[in-house]
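From: lab user (bench 3)
To: helpdesk
Subject: output format question, protein + FE2/S2 (inorganic) cluster

Hello, I'm new to running complex predictions and I'm not sure whether the block I got back is the full result or only part of it. Here's what I submitted:
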Amino acid sequence: MTTDSPRLRSTEWFDTPELYGWLRRAAFMSQGYGPEAYENRPIIGICNSWSELTHCNSHLRQLAEAVKRGVWQAGGFPMEFPVMSLGEYNMRPTTMLFRNLMSMEVEESLRANPLDGVVLLGGCDKTTPALLMGAASADIPAIIVTGGPQLKANWRGEELGSCTDCRRYEVELRAGNITGEDWAELQTCIVRSPGHCMVMGTASTMASMAEAMGIALPGNAAIPAVDSRRHRISELAGRQIINLVEQDLRPSKIMTQEAFENAIRTMHALGGSTNAVIHLTAIAGRLGIDLPGSLFDELSRTTPFILNLKPSGQYLMEDFFYAGGLAALLKEIAPLLHGDQMTVTGQTLAENIAPAINYNPDIIRSMDEPMDPEGGLAVLTGSLAPTGALIKPTAASESLMTHEGRAIVFEDHDDLFARIDDPDLDVTPDDVLVMRASGPIGAPGMPEWGFLPLPKKILASGARDMVRLSDARMSGTAFGTVVVHVTPESASGGPLAAVRNGDRISLNVPERRLDLLVDDREIKRRLHESPPEKPVHKRGYASMYSQHVLQADTGCDFDFLRA
Ligand code: FES
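Helpdesk reply: Thanks, we reran it on our side. This is the complete output you should expect:
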């Protein structure tokens, strides 16, 4: 630090007249650190969501060591600490139930401890947004380093991605086209390494959002988890956080309205996960920035979809890295971006992406030859979703973008699994599968149940897609004509609660409409006569969650956590 640098925040923990300043020094000594280690040096937290229960984040201890090297090199004092980790596969009922809890732990850990800056380590779907939400609220200088994508899977000569291809082959298993032995063999090779899912799922999308917003270093999004460059970018983050402390460059100065607009355009250009809409809205809400659904849709209409990656395209994150990574994609859409946005490099976004080269225009297309002239997500409204719903047209069937069909209603997730394969279920491929009680309050936690399985009898007929809709979310790795985030959710009295078997439903993606073709007075009458039941949680976190969680259009954050 230079002599005219601002007084370090951490100093206030040690220069105190009462006992605790003395005790804190004694505590550092107990770990072998004398005052020379930290006095007049920025203390940098390494906020680590490593956990053996989160396989995607299982290598973050090694990355933390690289960050520490960088902090020492630049004259800081690193202190690694754990926060809760949200493992997508292991946690029940859903990690989304705990995203806000993790964000609170991050925020309060940063606020309570003698830290001048922080390097955040995350990766699996919810860990990245939870870290960014907490850092936004605490607003001390921060850089996020995500764990990077897994290596590509390869099975019988075919390159596969988790878990787009897990879902695809599960459909074939249910259809009887592969055997149980095939399925077991696939399990042994689909997750080849540490790191997050290697398609453009939620984790890859949120890592890309962080880089597009400038809160992660250039290159962060696509370097594979086990590539040595992942260690080097971690070390660089350790060095660079010292500069951010010196310049007092906080998340609120980087994650601005314009930075979020850059992220939204990037999300559309890369065919990102529907979950990113919720997470970006929640992060922005911590900074007092509103991101209405209309903004997402407006930017979708004017941003071409240019990344050829699963689930909307052909390739995998490792290929994206070799093609030039996110910086090369950002350079392709540079005329649409706010290039003057400041980033954690201390340079603008335009300066960061200037050296990028697109090495494979089949993977990263140009704006002149896009995968699709419009962006990857569409925001729908209508009598069935008065405050919004989402669809990912790039991963859906073109033939179903305008569709009217008969509703086949499932009361909840249990009802769906009890009846979906019933041979007596009256269903045709033209029908619309509807599931309710799956939203933030109803499920609770808005699980990724939105990728409703097709009935076996439909699969047997050869069909592989139908219109499906719910108030749930959908994994970013999933695909199909799936409408999610129907808002307000059924448990809070949204019109979804009024749908009856046999009602007609109209989906019109070009016009951004989702309508229940039932008279408005009849919808109100049904909701009045049979109001939806809300699950009752009498104690603990679930009780707090159900009382304070907001709907999907406000990011499912807690009302008391927004700025
Ligand atoms: Fe962690 Fe997919 S399971 S990112």
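A quick orientation on your result: The chain has a mean pLDDT of 96. Let us know if anything else is unclear.
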